[in-house]
Every structure is written in structure tokens, then in C-alpha cells.
Design brief:
5 helices; mainly alpha
Length: about 150
């Protein structure tokens, strides 16, 4: 109940931030090729809607708990540790993209994150390589979106 509420607030806040930051892109039309802000804003709207759903679920669970028996307050420290590790990896990933470009940090991020969360190495490798390749093909080759090359490789 408390987790849903907090996660919903974080998701909605992040979505609002992404939506506002996407406004910095030059807007030129209603298609993805002419308006680079459109895709991030669509994703932000979806994440915002999910955040609102989580907030409502948290409020409903809180009201039900108040009306019925009070449950013991337990803290899931293991889950909070996973969230902190994932956020740390995400911050490192964004910094690494600036230095190394898209491919190497994306491969490392998609390999490391599942392993930190408990996935076996073999499974993480079997997922990370195709995910990185698909992202590269879809955005760089299909959509012709320029991907960062990194300041070390310029």
C-alpha cells in the first residue's frame, strides 16, 4: 500500500520532468521525424498514467487498511536496496553514454542490471546482447536517429 503510493509519486514526478525536458527539443510537426519531442512525451504520458494508477491503488489500500485491522508496518529493505542499486546503475549509464557512446554502456547496463537483481549471468548475456542490437537497429538504422558516439571516440 505504501509502496504503491510512493512509487506512483516517483513515477508521476519523473514523467512530468521528462515531459517538461522534452519541450527543449525543437518542435516542428506531428510526426516523429519532424518532432523529436513527441516520442518522449508519449512515453512520459504513459508513465504518468501508470503513476496515477499506483497512487490511487495506494490510497485505496490505505483506506481499506484503516477501516479493517491495522497491519504491521514492515519495511522491505531488500527491495529498497534493489531500487537504490538500479538508480545508481542508471546514473552511471547516463554518464557512460556521454563518455563512451551508446553501444558499450547500453550493453553493460542491460547486462549488469538484471544480474544485480538476481538473474544468472548466462541469462543476462542472452538478453542484453539482443536488446542492445535491437535498440541500435531500430533507432540508428530504421528511424535514422543519431546515437551518441561519446567524447572518447570522436
Amino acid at each position: 500500500m505504501k509502496k504503491d503510493f510512493v512509487n506512483g509519486i516517483v513515477a508521476a514526478g519523473f514523467a512530468l520532468f521528462v515531459y517538461a525536458e522534452a519541450g527543449r527539443f525543437a518542435e516542428g510537426g506531428a510526426s516523429l521525424s519532424r518532432n523529436p519531442a513527441l516520442y518522449p512525451r508519449i512515453l512520459a504520458a504513459i508513465v504518468f498514467a501508470i503513476g496515477v494508477i499506483l497512487i490511487v491503488r495506494g490510497i485505496i489500500a490505505f483506506v481499506k487498511a484503516r477501516g479493517g485491522e491495522r497491519q504491521k508496518s514492515t519495511t522491505d529493505t531488500n527491495g529498497m536496496r534493489y531500487v537504490a542499486l538500479t538508480v545508481g546503475l542508471l546514473v552511471a549509464y547516463v554518464g557512460a553514454i556521454h563518455l563512451l557512446g551508446f553501444v558499450i554502456p547500453t550493453l553493460a547496463f542491460t547486462l549488469t542490471t538484471p544480474m544485480v537483481l538476481g538473474t544468472k549471468f548466462k541469462t543476462a548475456v542472452l538478453v542484453s546482447i539482443p536488446v542492445t542490437a535491437i535498440l541500435y537497429v531500430v533507432f540508428f538504422i530504421f528511424f535514422k536517429v543519431p546515437i551518441p558516439s561519446g567524447i572518447l571516440f570522436q
